[in-house]
Amino acid sequence: MKQKITLLGMLLVGFSMFAQTNPAITKWLQNTTAFGSYYTSGNSTPIPMTVLSNCQQVRFNTTDVYINATGIPAYPTGIFSGDGNNNLAGNQNAIYKLPLNPSQNTGTLTATSGGNNGIFINGVSLFDYRDGVAYSASATNGICGGPPGNPPCSGGMGTIQAWNRDAIPAERLGFDCAKGHPAGTNYHHHQNPSAFKYDSTTSNTFSPICSLYDSEGLYAINPTVHSPLIGFAYDGFPIYGAYAYTNVNGTGAIARMKSSYQLKNQTTRTNGPTVGQTIGTQTFFNGYFKEDYEYVAHSSDPTYLDEHNGRICVTPEYPAGIYCYFTTVNADNSSAYPYVIGPTFYGNKTGAKVASAPTTGLTTFLANENFILDKATISIFPNPTNDYFTVQTDFVEKDLDVFLINELGQIVKSSKILQGSTLSIIETDTVYNGIYFLKISDGKESKSFKVIINK
Description:
By secondary structure, the protein is mainly beta. It is built from three helices and 31 strands. It has helices at residues 2-21, 23-26, 167-170, and strands at residues 35-40, 43-52, 55-60, 64-69, 94-99, 118-120, 125-126, 130-135, 143-144, 164-166, 180-183, 186-189, 229-233, 238-240, 243-245, 254-256, 261-263, 277-279, 282-284, 293-295, 310-313, 322-326, 352-354, 363-365, 379-381, 388-392, 400-405, 411-417, 423-427, 434-441, 446-453.
């Protein structure tokens, strides 16, 4: 009997340790008090919602994790009407199931699909490249499917056509500042969920939306540190931001993870429009369609990713290594195809949005509601700077005040890291050159950092 009790105790301890160390359980941004917000056209002040933001509950057993989420982020959403999308982000009241022990698919690969292919750590949906629009030689504007006004494509919604549109350049004016938009009410990202305002303004994926309807997005790209874990694909493997260790064993400098897909050197498309051809309102540039890209392996350079847009490597959360997807960007921070996952999954896709979770056998993982400022990981970049500082920290359960203080002890700028968020921006365009102190406070404790403004 004593041996049985001891064995049971060991199993319970092992299960508890598993829960505390598995990022697929611990990394979700849980929130039960803060609400989302949204913009309406012509109003640059976000309007509060009555829907909670981020994830509300995380439960797990030995095989799967179940995440309850509204699909509404802590950062404001909208507007989306730049390409005719007049929908608003709404409560998905969703439960997502993901495998805790993901495995490589050694059989026929599973293609990504229209709709959800994973979720970000704030419960927002992840879509792939597509928007349901494709080339149609008989259509007035040369396209079918997607928004009302286009004729339906042959085979109906979801049927893969010969030439399928890439949503990221095509719908860029319909994304909000955080690079998201809703399908119906399902707010989602197709790409790296950092704000447009940090991207090159000359990119064909750029939108100027942030100048009127500002947002910070899920995270900000920092090329000097390993990017954070920002989501999970439906095969259970983690999704990271754009930067990681050069070498797969966790050594080497921080480097940008690069897509191995490149545009074809082409002027014509078989059974499609010629490159640069205009039909009605549409100009079919090279890169308009997903099929304009080809995969080119770079076996000698570990910073180039595989055909699924990932690699097996060591990360801060997985010191023993795991397969990881990356949200690929170009050197100017603009998004790079296939953006996150694709066009196929690396692993066995067993994750999904489900109607319910099991009623027995689940353990609830409680988020750490005691945010300890002194132990928080805080990054301030760029430093020195000439126009703004990004302050990025762990997910916070209550507002943090951020103050920019000059050498006389005077507060010259202030901002907040809002509850449920991870970052804030201090703009320095009206501040003189010099040495300043950035103070972050939760009302009880504070931390200060030396920063330099050099325009």
